[in-house]
Amino acid sequence: MLDDLTVVLFRPKFPENIGSTARACLNMGVTKMIIVDPYNFNMDKALPLATAHAKHVLENARICETLPEALEGFTAVYGTTARTGGWRKGIMSPSTLAKVVDERLHTGGKVALVFGPEDKGLTNEETSLCSGLMTIPTSREGTSLNLAQAVVIVLYECFKQALSKPFVPDGPPEERPTTIQEQETLFANLQESLLAINFLKEDNPDYWMLPVRRFFSKINLKRNEFNLLMGVSRQVQWFVRAYGPKKDT
Questions:
Q1: What domain range is 133 assigned to?
Q2: Contact call for residues 180 and 71 (beta carbons, < 8 A)
Q3: Which parts of the chain have pLDDT scores under 50?
Q4: Which among 231, 190, 217 has a CA at the least distance from the CA of 75?
């Protein structure tokens, strides 16, 4: 039911939290975990918290050195954040995220949920790799959640949502969702095209691309749509090279 949903722990600090997270994953029907650049990881300390039931989830977890490496092959990535404001807009609640995740999974997508370090959370650079962000509302008197607590809250909403919809088979290959790597290729190409026509400011184009990224995060972009946009972007670049950018009048 949630076979294509993966929990990604980015730089977790405590092996006990990793073990507890493995147990939380299994409780909600998720068996795939990726651990990115863990601090002082110790399997012997993590296993007791996973319990015998979730031992296989922990032992089969993939360990990666970087977040981009961990996110290869996913079609949608959602990060968790306690910070809001600035460019961190359109932040979802766990229940809203669950509906989005369910839609992506039912259209053949592979989804990753990224949880940041216990003490710092995800930086702006790391959240820029995400299709969207989610925060867990808490009381003002106690805003800090244990890593496994946060994971089980989010996965519970995903599990509950998954129970409410029937399975929909995949469409043809050209209608499959795009991967994160394909989306990054498209963003890089669009950025080059938008710079070429003076739509983006040259001083900090990555910053000005954030609204474009947010726009596409709302769309379950298919491979055939990716091909179309890549073609348009390349044509814009060809036109500018051939005739030069449009002059201001």
A1: 5-162
A2: yes
A3: 249
A4: 217
